[in-house]
Amino acid sequence: MRAATAWDIVGIGLNAMDVIIEVPHYPAFNSKIEFERAEVFPGGQVATALVACQRWGLRTRYVGRIGDDELGRLQRASLLEAGVEISELRVVPGCPSQSAYIVVDGRSGERTILWRRDPRLQIPPDELSREVICSGRLVHVDGHDTEAAARAAGWAREQGIPVTADVDNVYPKVEALLERVDYLVSSSSFPSRLTGIADPLGALRKIQETYEQRFTACTLGADGAVGYDGRRFWYCPAFEVECADTTGAGDVFHGGFSYALVQGWSAERAVEFASAAAALNCTARGARGGIASKEAVEELMRAGRWRGVKWPDWLLRQRG
Fold first, then answer.
1. What does the alpha-carbon distance between residue 161 and residue 153 come to, in Å, rounded to a whole number?
2. Cα 80 to the chain's mean position, in Å?
3. Contact between 92 and 66 (Cβ < 8 Å)
């Protein structure tokens, strides 16, 4: 990983503004329920990951699009306040910014997301600058604007810059992106949906072998995360915390994983740091509400407060 660069991480992908609606319990179909509070918070997969890394002391640069509405102005202000460099944040005239309405169950903190992204917010590959993309030590992408992400990842690969990816769905042409990714951390359902292999570990192995990635992993929500490095599986249970809102946990996980790679840590320690950071983010409302300090994340790691999830013996033996 290159040492002398202007930025530690360059991220290209989603930002969003979230309306968090907390209810005493998740409503039944065709019912009416009084909500307890509704608040607006900044979020988005790549934007949130970069804010986390910036808070932990890295220099981050964001490439993306917003609309020219109030939500876009709030998103821009949130990135500026965090210290993220946003000279490549483009404003699309007459276009609404991406937004989400997130219903949070007050008992468990689990959420349901209703979201919309105007097609005009898609990042055209020709809008990217190779110089900008390759100005960091690591490039982080998501899978939504697949062609733009693939082009950015390809440039990074040619320059010897590692690429991390947050992919939550089987988007058109996602295979071209996966060919250029070094570290994939996907949603729990993605490996099986992509490969058609029901066994999640078999699906992870297939992806790693097909696309020759350095490390292929998926997050498992309350059950932690599991990854494969071509030789063995790494499993990390979730940490035990008082959960207020799971919104943004995966995004902060990716931020933690990317942060750890820039530090030169092993994949196993990277997954553990990312899991602890994601858990702490769940202790407050909003996608970025619970981003904790490095010290707090490492303290949770040292405490080893794992959730009481029983995994099959063969998987635990793999963790070894």
1. 9
2. 20
3. yes
Q: Could you give the CA distance from residue 122 to residue 162 in angstroms, rounded to a whole number?
A: 24
Short-list 85, 82, 89, 69, CA closest to 14: 89
Mean pLDDT across the chain, nearest whole number? 92
pLDDT tens digits for range 158-173? 999 999 999 999 999 9
Q: Which residues contact 304 (CB under 8 A, 6 or more apart)?
A: none
Phi, psi of 187 (to 5 degrees): -70, 165
HSE-up of residue 187 (Cα within 13 Å, Cβ side) = 13
Give me the count of residues in the chain.
320
Are 25 and 104 contacting, i.e. CB atoms less than 8 angstroms apart? no
The token pair at 7 is 């930025």
* Dihedrals phi, psi of 241, to nearest 5 degrees: -140, 165
The 10 Å Cβ neighbour count of residue 113 is 13
Q: Is 112 helix (H, G, I), strand (E, B) or coil?
A: strand
Q: What is the pLDDT of residues 99-154, one digit of tens each?
A: 999 999 988 888 899 999 999 999 999 999 999 999 999 999 999 999 999 999 99
Nearest to 211 by CA among 253, 259, 153: 153
- Outline where DSSP puts E strands in the chain: 7-12, 16-23, 37-43, 60-67, 85-92, 99-105, 111-116, 136-142, 163-167, 183-186, 215-219, 225-228, 233-236
Q: Is 185 helix (H, G, I), strand (E, B) or coil?
A: strand
Judged on CB neighbours under 10 Å (0-12, 13-18, 19+), 287 is: buried
User: How far apart are the C-alpha atoms of 42 and 29, rounded to whole Å?
Assistant: 29
Beta-carbon count within 10 A of 57 CB: 12
Residue with tokens 């058109």: 172
Nearest to 294 by CA among 74, 5, 35, 57: 57
Model pLDDT for residues 37-71, shown as the tens digit of each residue: 999 999 999 999 999 999 999 999 999 999 999 99
Q: Answer whether 0.90 is exceeded by the pTM.
A: yes
- State which amino acid sits at residue 280: L
